Amino acid sequence: MAPYLAELPEDDGENAWVTARLSLGVVGEARQLLQFSDRVEMLSPPEVREEVARAAASVTDLYQRVGRRPEEKSRSDGGL
Fold it and tell me: Which residues are CB-neighbours of 52 under 8 A, at least 6 positions away?
């Protein structure tokens, strides 16, 4: 996410969390933050926080639905 850093976090590495300011072009770009799972939290602006929450909920819903499916036969293609 380095290209999006608007300013470097002021932290000496002693804290478990740091606050970083990112400059994203559009709200949807914030979805990239999902790659960090629960190791990142969007604080503001509210519309970006809501977009990330919606995207995370969508992923959660997908995997909950998959978990309720009857077990399928093992794939021979080795796919995920």
Answer: 30, 31, 33, 34, 42
C-beta neighbour count of 52 within 10 angstroms: 19
**Category of 30 on φ-ψ map: left (φ > 0), alpha (ψ -120 to 50) or beta:** alpha
Number of C-beta neighbours around residue 51 at 10 A = 19
Give the total residue count for the chain.
80
Give the confidence band of 54 by pLDDT, cuts at 50, 70, 90.
very high
Q: Residue 79, SS3?
A: coil
Report H helices in 1-80: 46-68
Specify the pTM. 0.62
